[in-house]
Amino acid sequence: MSDRILILIPPINLIGGVSGHYRGLQKYWSKNILYFETAKFSTKSKWNIIISILNILEYIYALIRHNPAKIVINISLKKGFFSKNNYIKIGKLFRKKVIVFIHGWDADYEYMLQSHNARLILSSDGFILLSESFKNKLAEYVPKNKIFLTTTKVDDSLIKDYDIDNRTGKIETLLFLSRVEKEKGIFIVIDAFNKLIPKYPNLKLSIVGDGTALDEVKHQIDKDKIRNVTIHGRLSGNDLIKAFSDADLFILPTTHGEGLPGALLEAMAFGLPAITRPVGGIPDFFTNGEMGMLTESLNPNDYAQYIEQLINDPVLTKKISLTNYNYAKEHFWASIVARQMEQIFKNI
Length: 348
What we know:
Elements: E1 5-9, H1 17-25, E2 33-37, H2 48-66, E3 70-77, H3 85-93, E4 97-105, H4 118-122, E5 126-129, H5 132-138, E6 147-149, H6 156-159, E7 173-177, H7 186-196, E8 204-208, H8 214-223, E9 229-233, H9 237-246, E10 249-252, H10 262-269, E11 274-276, H11 282-285, E12 292-294, H12 300-311, H13 314-331, H14 334-347
Parallel strand pairs: 1-2, 1-3, 3-4, 4-5, 5-6, 7-8, 7-10, 8-9, 10-11, 11-12
Helix pairs in contact: 2-3, 7-12, 10-13
């Protein structure tokens, strides 16, 4: 029997998300792991139906050509949860084991698990999730022994030359690195930073990423005349490494239906203390006080207070830096995650 695993992914060169996850793992897989790119097309295109049919035909050809033992379907519990149902149906028709990897989990869409359309997904042979809380919710619908946990990853090459001894515990630059969206907490970060500037005039804020709220962010910074803010846009390669290296504290007050934010794991790999919220898989590993601050709050005043605590305690901040660096090296490097995921595939 074939040991091959066919993983269905969006186009590999898309920035971030599922594509970024699998692009980062690609060089660490064994030869048994194969990718199949599902089509990415505009919902306004008149060719959508034709493109979809062609992609399904390509998928069938890939199943015949590679004869994988198992296929991995990547979805999120949100709008579009059922978009991969046809791929699951075809996989089952070809008598392949189907593994569903649910990356994001929006609580507002949990009702979908009770719908008739969810029966096909829930009949899959195994499930991979990013959070213990997601696992407990899904276990209401499928046997718990069919559910496995993994993590997102940090590309080994991103941090291979980084020296943790550069971390002194001094905080001069705050980093927000994510999609620039309200639900990612960017306005909380800006407001908290603005409250600290009068007392800490040399403090800086670095914003990395783009998104639909970017123009509004620029407008607020100009309107409120907030100093020392640099908006970099989306970064990659050496520019991304520099952004992490130059920063001293990572902040992500997200309310988004996260699985496990890759930017948080990357920040920890660079030894950055983090201030974030207990969403998705974050509370499964993040120890409040030892890795930074974990808070339910959405109040900028609270974030300003947490930042100030770390500013005024460089000994603690340096200790957190070393803790985060070592934890990320042991758990989040892509080479480690790839091996763990392949073991999960074998166990299903």
